[in-house]
C-alpha cells in the first residue's frame, strides 16, 4: 500500500506537469495527426525557408520598413474598457470560447444583433466562387485539436487586403455585431459574421 | 475567490454550460454504480475494450455522415457487448483475448476508415475529439442532452430495481444460479448497461479515458468502505464530486475536460488511500 501511494503520487505529479500544460509545442504535437504528413510538411517548410532566406535577405530592410508602416495602421491592443459588449469572449478560457462559437454556428438566430468581442488568430481565406477574401478570427480549444472560426468585416469593409490587414496567424481581438447572410447565386448556406468590426493586434 | 465566483456565475448563464454540468454529473453517477460491480467481478478492462469499439462505431457514423453519431455508436457497442458476453465462455479464443482483439481491432479499423473515407478538413481534430473528449461535453445538442438524461434514468432505474440480483450475481454467480437466478440474463443486462454507460461517458472524457470514470471511484471507495452498499454509495458520491470539480476546474482554467476529471479522480484515489490507512490504524 505504501508503494502504491508513492507510485500514485509520482503519477499525479507527472500528470499535473504534462497534462495541464499550455506549452505551444505540446498543443501542436497533439494537433498533428498523421506522422507521414508531418515529416513531409516539415521537409517542405525547411526547403521553402532555405529558398526564402536567400531571396529575402535582399528584401529584408524594405520589408521591415513596410511592416512597421503596416503595423502603424492597425490599432494595437489598448487597455480601453469595451463598451456595450453583450458577450465578451476575451474573458473566457479557450474551451469556453470554442463552445460559444460552436453555439453561434448551431443557433445563430439567438445571437443576431448582439455585440461580441473575441480574441483569436487572424486567418484570411480566398473563396474562388465569389472571388473575395474573407477574414476570420480563429479560436482553438484547450487541446488545440479543434478550431472554430468566425468571419468579421473590419469597419465598413473598405480596408484593403493584404496591405492594411495583419499577418496571417497574428493574435487579434475583434469586436463586432453578429449578423447572418447568404451569398448571391446558388449558395444556399447561411453564414454568420461580425459586421462593423473593430480590429486590434495583440503584441506578444 | 470573488473573481472565481463571478466568473463561474458568468459561465452559468450559458445554457451549454448548464447542460454540460447536468450531463456530466449523470454520466459520472451511472458509471460509478456499475463500476463497483465491474471492479468486483474483475471486469475492469471491459469498459476500455467497449470504448474502443465505440470509437470504431463513431468513425463509421462519421464516414456515413449519420445525423446522430451517438445513436449508431450505442447500437454497435451494445451488439458487441452482447457478442462478447455470449461467446466468451464456449469459444477457442478465451475472454481476455477476445476483448483485446476486439478493442485494438475496432480502434485500428475506426482510424483507418476515418483516414480513407472522411472528407473532414480536420481529421486529427475529429479523432482527438473522440479519443479525449475535448469539448464534446460543451457542444452537446439538445437532443443529445435529452438522450443522455433518458439513458441515465434507465440505467439508475435498472440498478435500483435489480439491486439484489446484481448483488448476488456479482459476489457468487454459482450460488445465484443454484437459487434459480437467471445468471446469463443478468450478465446480458449488465453487458448492455455497461455499453450504454461507455457510449455516454465518451461525451464526457473521450473513449480513451472512459475506464478511469468506471474504475477510479469504486477503487477509491473500496479503500475506505468494506460493504457493497457502503462502497456503492461512496463510489457514486465520489464520482459525482470528482466530475463536478473536474468540469468546474476545466471551465474556469481552460484545461481539457476529460483529463482534468481523471486527474481529480486520481487525486481522490490517493486521498482515499491515505484516509483508508489512517482509519485502519485508528480502528486497530
TrEMBL record, chain A:
Q: Keyword annotations for this protein?
A: Signal
Chain segments carrying region Disordered: 54-79
Could you tell me the superkingdom of the organism this chain comes from?
A: Bacteria
**Signal peptide segment:** 1-22
Here the segments flagged for biased composition (Basic and acidic residues) are: 60-79
Q: What protein name does the entry list?
A: Lipoprotein
UniProtKB/TrEMBL annotation, chain B:
| Gene Ontology cellular-component terms listed | ATP-binding cassette (ABC) transporter complex
**InterPro entries hit by this protein:** ABC_BtuC-like (IPR037294), ABC_TroCD (IPR001626)
Residue ranges crossing the lipid bilayer per the database entry: 16-40, 52-85, 97-117, 123-140, 145-168, 188-216, 228-251, 257-279
Could you tell me the Gene Ontology terms of the biological process aspect for this record? response to zinc ion; transmembrane transport
What's the superkingdom here? Bacteria
Q: Where in the cell is it found?
A: Cell membrane; Membrane
One family name in Pfam for this protein: ABC-3
Sorted UniProt keywords: Membrane, Transmembrane, Transmembrane helix, Transport
Q: How is this protein positioned relative to the membrane?
A: Multi-pass membrane protein
Annotated family: Belongs to the ABC-3 integral membrane protein family.
Name recorded for this polypeptide: Zinc transport system permease protein
Amino acid at each position: 500500500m505504501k508503494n502504491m501511494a508513492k507510485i500514485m503520487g509520482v503519477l499525479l505529479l507527472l500528470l499535473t506537469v504534462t497534462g495541464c500544460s499550455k506549452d505551444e509545442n505540446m498543443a501542436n504535437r497533439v494537433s498533428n495527426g498523421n506522422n507521414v504528413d508531418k515529416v513531409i510538411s516539415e521537409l517542405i517548410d525547411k526547403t521553402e525557408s532555405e529558398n526564402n532566406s536567400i531571396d529575402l535577405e535582399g528584401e529584408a530592410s524594405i520589408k521591415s520598413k513596410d511592416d512597421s508602416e503596416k503595423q502603424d495602421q492597425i490599432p494595437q491592443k489598448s487597455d480601453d474598457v469595451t463598451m456595450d459588449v453583450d458577450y465578451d469572449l476575451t474573458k473566457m478560457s479557450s474551451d469556453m470560447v470554442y463552445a460559444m462559437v460552436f453555439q453561434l454556428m448551431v443557433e445563430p438566430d439567438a445571437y443576431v444583433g448582439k455585440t461580441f468581442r473575441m480574441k483569436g488568430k487572424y486567418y484570411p481565406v480566398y473563396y474562388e466562387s465569389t472571388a473575395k477574401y474573407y477574414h476570420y478570427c480563429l479560436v482553438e480549444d484547450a487541446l488545440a485539436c479543434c478550431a472554430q472560426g468566425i468571419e468579421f468585416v473590419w469597419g465598413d469593409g473598405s480596408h484593403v487586403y493584404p496591405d492594411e490587414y495583419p499577418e496571417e496567424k497574428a493574435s487579434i481581438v475583434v469586436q463586432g455585431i453578429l449578423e447572418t447572410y447568404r451569398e448571391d447565386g446558388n449558395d444556399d448556406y447561411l453564414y454568420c459574421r461580425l459586421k462593423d468590426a473593430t480590429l486590434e493586434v495583440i503584441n506578444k | 475567490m470573488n473573481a472565481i465566483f463571478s466568473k463561474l456565475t458568468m459561465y452559468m448563464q450559458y445554457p451549454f454550460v448548464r447542460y454540460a454540468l447536468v450531463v456530466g454529473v449523470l454520466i459520472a453517477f451511472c458509471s460509478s454504480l456499475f463500476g463497483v460491480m465491474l471492479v468486483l467481478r474483475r471486469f475492469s478492462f471491459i469498459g476500455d475494450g467497449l470504448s474502443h469499439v465505440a470509437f470504431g462505431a463513431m468513425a463509421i457514423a462519421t464516414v456515413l455522415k449519420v445525423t446522430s453519431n451517438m445513436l449508431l455508436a450505442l447500437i454497435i457497442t451494445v451488439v458487441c457487448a452482447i457478442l462478447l458476453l455470449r461467446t466468451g465462455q464456449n469459444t477457442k479464443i478465451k475472454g481476455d483475448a477476445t476483448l483485446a482483439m476486439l478493442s485494438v481491432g475496432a480502434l485500428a479499423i475506426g482510424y483507418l476508415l476515418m483516414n480513407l473515407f472522411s472528407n473532414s478538413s480536420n481529421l486529427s481534430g475529429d479523432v482527438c475529439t473522440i479519443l479525449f473528449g475535448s469539448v464534446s461535453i460543451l457542444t452537446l445538442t439538445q437532443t443529445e442532452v435529452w438522450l443522455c438524461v433518458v439513458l441515465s434514468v434507465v440505467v439508475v432505474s435498472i440498478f435500483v430495481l435489480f439491486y439484489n440480483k446484481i448483488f448476488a450475481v456479482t459476489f457468487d454467480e454459482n450460488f445465484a444460479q443454484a437459487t434459480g437466478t437467471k445468471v446469463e440474463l443478468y450478465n446480458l443486462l449488465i453487458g448492455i448497461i455497461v455499453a450504454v454507460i461507455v457510449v455516454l461517458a465518451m461525451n464526457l472524457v473521450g473513449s480513451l479515458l472512459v475506464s478511469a470514470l468506471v474504475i477510479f471511484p469504486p477503487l477509491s471507495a473500496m479503500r475506505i468502505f468494506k460493504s457493497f452498499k457502503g462502497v456503492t454509495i461512496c463510489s457514486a458520491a465520489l464520482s459525482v464530486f470528482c466530475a463536478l470539480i473536474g468540469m468546474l476546474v476545466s471551465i474556469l482554467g481552460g484545461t481539457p475536460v476529460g483529463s482534468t476529471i481523471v486527474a481529480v479522480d486520481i487525486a481522490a484515489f490517493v486521498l482515499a488511500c491515505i484516509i483508508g490507512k489512517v482509519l485502519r490504524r485508528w480502528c486497530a
